[in-house]
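Batch job 17 of 40 flagged for manual review because the log was empty.
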Amino acid sequence: MIVVSDTASTRRRTALGCCRSSALVALQLLAQHSNVDYVAGPIGGLLALNQGHRLHHLNLAGDGDVNFGLFTLIWDQLLGTYVDPRTRRVRDGDLGIVGDPDYPTRYVSQLTQPFRRVRARL
């Protein structure tokens, strides 16, 4: 009975750890992709916050191939894919999908867009 109890306790701890990790990633993705205009100060060049990651979503061919980091931009700096967000301000029309100017802007419409394309081809 002790082994079963220890195993169940281990499973609970593992599940909670997994949930915490998933929650942290989800919160980071929300912060990173939020459309809130804020300045992070000196840590903005280290952490992959929306200010730096937003440049990854530029719709100009080649310009958006930067700032890939999920939690930090240090790897981008080391590997030459970092662009300082202070040197490139994002303006209306800079973000989006190249070749699809009518891509939906509403959240639910974006989620269903791939299925509409499949239906259109059938």
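Reviewer: the log was empty due to a logging misconfiguration, but the result itself is present. The helical segments are 2-33, 50-53, 74-79, 107-121. Unflagging and moving on to job 18.
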